[in-house]
Predict the structure of (rape) hypothetical protein.
Amino acid sequence: MDPKSAEFTADNPLRILGFVFEELSATRVSGRLTVTDKCCQPFKVLHGGVSALIAEGLASLGAGIASGYKRVAGVHLSIHHVRPAALGESVFAESFPVSVGKNIQVWEVRLWKTNETEKKKMISTSRVTLLSGLPVPDHAKDSLDQLKKFVSKL
Ligand SMILES: CC(C)(COP(=O)(O)OP(=O)(O)OC[C@H]1O[C@@H](n2cnc3c(N)ncnc32)[C@H](O)[C@@H]1OP(=O)(O)O)[C@@H](O)C(=O)NCCC(=O)NCCSC(=O)c1cc(O)c2ccccc2c1O
C-alpha cells in the first residue's frame, strides 16, 4: 500500500478523518487534511480536538521512529488555536522534535492553512511530551513492523 494513500493506517482516527501522511521520519512528520463536516465544531470550523488529535498522532509517530520503533506514551499536550480553519479549507500539518532524550521526547506540531504549495497562515501550535523507549507489547509488533516498512518507502 502507498503510505501517501488515504487507506494508509499509521493512526486509525486520523485515517477516518481523511488525514493523508506525506513524510514520516525521526526528524519530521507531516501530512494534509481537508476540513470536512466530520472535523468541524458547530460553527463549521476545524474542531480544536481534531487539531490536538493531529498533534498527538504526528508527535507519537515521530517519537516512535526516533526511539527505534519502541513504544511511546504521550504524557502532556498543550495547544494554542491562533486562527480558525473553515469547512472546505486545506490544512498542512508538520511536526519536528525539539528534544530527543533517552526517556523523554518533546515535539512541536504546527497546523497551517495552505494551498498546494505554500503554508499561508498558522492555525495552531502544539507541544507534545512523550515517554519513549517502552517495550512493545506482542499485539502491536505487527503494526510497528508495518510502519517500519512504510517509512523505508517514503
Ligand atoms: C480567538 C481568536 C479570535 C483571537 O484572535 P486574536 O485577537 O488573538 O488575533 P486577531 O484579531 O489578529 O485574529 C487572528 C485570526 O483569528 C480570526 N478571527 C479573529 N476574530 C474572529 C472572529 N470574530 N470570527 C472568526 N475568526 C476570527 C481571523 O481569521 C484572524 O486571522 P487573520 O487571517 O485575519 O489574521 C483567534 O485566535 C482564533 O480565531 N483562534 C482560533 C479559534 C479556534 O478555531 N478554536 C478551535 C475550535 S473551537 C472548538 O473546538 C469548539 C468545539 C465544540 O465542540 C464547540 C461546541 C459548542 C460551541 C463551540 C464549540 C467550539 O468552539
Summary: The chain has a mean pLDDT of 92. Residues 9 and 15 are 6 Å apart (CA to CA). The first helix runs from residue 12 to 17.
